[in-house]
From TrEMBL, chain A:
<dbReference type="Pfam" id="PF01547">
    <property type="entry name" value="SBP_bac_1"/>
</dbReference>
<dbReference type="InterPro" id="IPR006059">
    <property type="entry name" value="SBP"/>
</dbReference>
<protein>
    <submittedName>
        <fullName>Multiple sugar transport system substrate-binding protein</fullName>
    </submittedName>
</protein>
<comment type="similarity">
    <text>Belongs to the bacterial solute-binding protein 1 family.</text>
</comment>
<keyword id="KW-0813">Transport</keyword>
<keyword id="KW-0732">Signal</keyword>
<keyword id="KW-0574">Periplasm</keyword>
<keyword id="KW-0762">Sugar transport</keyword>
<dbReference type="InterPro" id="IPR050490">
    <property type="entry name" value="Bact_solute-bd_prot1"/>
</dbReference>
TrEMBL record, chain B:
<protein>
    <submittedName>
        <fullName>Multiple sugar transport system permease protein</fullName>
    </submittedName>
</protein>
<keyword id="KW-1133">Transmembrane helix</keyword>
<dbReference type="InterPro" id="IPR000515">
    <property type="entry name" value="MetI-like"/>
</dbReference>
<keyword id="KW-1003">Cell membrane</keyword>
<feature type="transmembrane region" description="Helical">
    <location>
        <begin position="285"/>
        <end position="304"/>
    </location>
</feature>
<dbReference type="InterPro" id="IPR035906">
    <property type="entry name" value="MetI-like_sf"/>
</dbReference>
<keyword id="KW-0812">Transmembrane</keyword>
<feature type="transmembrane region" description="Helical">
    <location>
        <begin position="191"/>
        <end position="209"/>
    </location>
</feature>
<feature type="transmembrane region" description="Helical">
    <location>
        <begin position="32"/>
        <end position="59"/>
    </location>
</feature>
Amino acid sequence: MNDHEKRDFQAGLEAEVDAFMRGETTRRTFITRFGQMTGMLAASGPILAMMTDWALAQQKLELADAGSPLGQAQAAAMKASMEGPADGSAFRAVEAAKAHSGVTLNMTYEAGLQALDPRNFSGPMWEQLTGMKSNVVELSNPDQYSKAVAEHIAGSGAYDVLDISPAWTPSLADGGVIAPLDDYIAKYMNPADLEDYHPLYKALPTYKGKIWGFFDDGDMFALYYRKDIFEDPKMVEAYQAKFNAKLAPPKTWEEYAQIAQFITDQMAPNIYGAGHFRKAGSPGNQFDFLQQYRANGGKLFGDDMKAGLVSDAGVKTLQNMIAANAASIPGNNELDAVSLWAAFLTGKVAMIYSWPPSGRMAANYSQSATAINFIPQSQIAGKVGYAVVPGNPEHATGYNKALSADSANPEAAYLFMQWACSPPVSLARCMLPYALRDPYRISHFKSELYGALFPSAKEYLSNLNNSANVGLLDPIMPGAQDYFLSIDRMCTAVWAGADPKASLETAAAEWNETTDRLGVDSQKAFYTEFLKLPGATADNTVEKLGMAVTL
Amino acid sequence: MQHTATISRLKAAGAPPRLSGLAQWADRHFKWLLVAPAVLLILALSVYPLLFSLVVSFINYDFQVPGHAFVGLKNFERVVFDPVARWSLLLTAWLSGISVAIEFVLGLLVALTMVRSFPGRGVIMSILIVPLFISPVIVGQAWTLLLQRPFGPTNYILTQLLGQEVTIGWMTESPWLYVSLIIADVWQWTPFMFVILLAGLTAIPPNLYEAAELDGVNAWQAFWAITLPHLAPMMLLALTFRLLDAIRMFDTIFIMTGGGPGTRTYTASYYLYTVGFTQFHLSQATAGSWLFLIFTALVVMLLVRRLLKTEPV
């Protein structure tokens, strides 16, 4: 070491020692602190998870005023769960579930209003009854399937109860994502409670002879119209004079467009004849096309599984829809479901067809919940009539509760499902003002308590039941979302001016590609299974099969 | 003497504890330990997913088709021969090009206006950059509320201003739906251009302008001869960053048009999202992502090469 190097070494050593003496960071302290930081990072995950759990923890059981119809329904649900009847599905589920006290059930729900029921009502009540906790996993609609499949592939057992659209049942059942319930049903359920389902919904979770869930949301489209306009003597007289017919809720789609145009001609810009949710990506297009297309005699697939869209029925359907659009509120093609509700509730349109919450909102019942205050107050309460959608209404998706095949507590999960979907509990859930669960059991349609929710609730329930009697199901088969997407693209392209025939051909080509991708034979087998369901076509509705429910 | 002093100070501080075997090993490999977490993170979060996605693009990975059979180039073929994919790529280039060009011009104009001090400048600047901090989803929702018929006030205001009824379908009619998307994008991202270009403008030495003024150079000449050359690197930087962001355009489209009508507002990102997460054809979406990545990489390469070549005068 020469002098120069010695000086450098000495200077370096001095600096190190000075730093050490001053307590400044050295290599050693750096390693120590880095280790501490890594440890803290590792610990922060679980801490954050705990905080999240706390933040999203189950709410306290929210009960309505005991004297209100909802309060009475909730009390009845509680009583049926605790006291019986002893053979009731709710009571039996609770009794058996007590053995699983302390278990936490992870259940998927669509994010938003749908999840408020298990958070505020059914989850806390179930915990109170059985000691089982529930962890509500809120997912966007596509994630309700993608996450379920991904977790199944990973074998994580992340979920116990899955909320799924019936259209997904075949895919998820064949994929081993969900488990059949038959053995549990035989062991725990009162068979009469299965018979209490409206026939349109009863078979929905059935696939290849097994039951893959409990149907839990009667998403039946219905027509909601302004009675005050339809009964206005001046309007009645003018309609009679123009069309030599009585102004009444339409029975055909041509009549629907005609009445909508008539009202628009008479009352615009204050009130327009109709409104629809036609925005791209809002599911109104697919549901509306499917209901009208099949009511017009259209077939989804031919015997060779080629798309049947390019047909007279297809062209007629699109032409009817174009005519209805022309008769509707300006901006009709830009509306989604919520903005359509806003237009109807503020009195801007005379007719809409949509999901059942429309009726509850129109009566101002839903808006009693703060969670749903983004919907305007109804200015048409007491003025709304209910009718079956012309032809055959669409059962627009719905929900099944399904048991995850990877659940670590399948029996406990099943028992929750049985309890939540049992007649008294499901009634109380469907009556929640903020919930988007809609009546689906015969006992719901006949319920005196539901019938007392708002002045016209009995007519509303009756109309939902009548709609289900002639209702049509969405296709229940793999690729359903591809087929739906093609319809949505086709419709919105037509609304923007594309040729209906050419658009039908494009959609048909996309359908055929989807079918080819999934396998023609395989898809044919699924479609054949679907056609066996009541409501698969306009020729085998519940009513035409002689199974109509009369209240 | 110095050595003795140092040793005595060390003794006073106490002898350091003996290092264990592990500590000695850590001491020897200190530099590797330092970079290891970052390398592991990159491997876990970038390299592995990238390699896995490459594998996925050559197999069947579809939620509805059982198994993961090797399908060769089938997934790429599906994307290449899908007219919607080709359209979405074109639209991406077109929309991002126009949006960024407008943002650049407006950003430059605002920056030139704001480069000199005037009363209220701070407040105005604060207001101008607010859109940058808003989530694109909220921006989309806000513009939807403004433009959507029948509730949005835009057509009403235009009707009042023009004296004749305006019935534009801002989110359903061509070319207005593109105008709407560009307006929303320009509103949000012009401040980005403005901030970067303003930084560039303030970095130009003022003595250059003073000298130019003494030489009798007018404002336009000063802009061409001084501002533009000095600002060029910043301009290219702003354009590069913004363009890279703009070609990912998704959120506002998702909220404002839902990709419609038909597939008219499908950008590449929206197309990939739809294929992957609406239709669940994950392998096709992954193959499409690779193709999109290659196109993007080409653009990036060109821009970065140009950026590196640019040097201030």
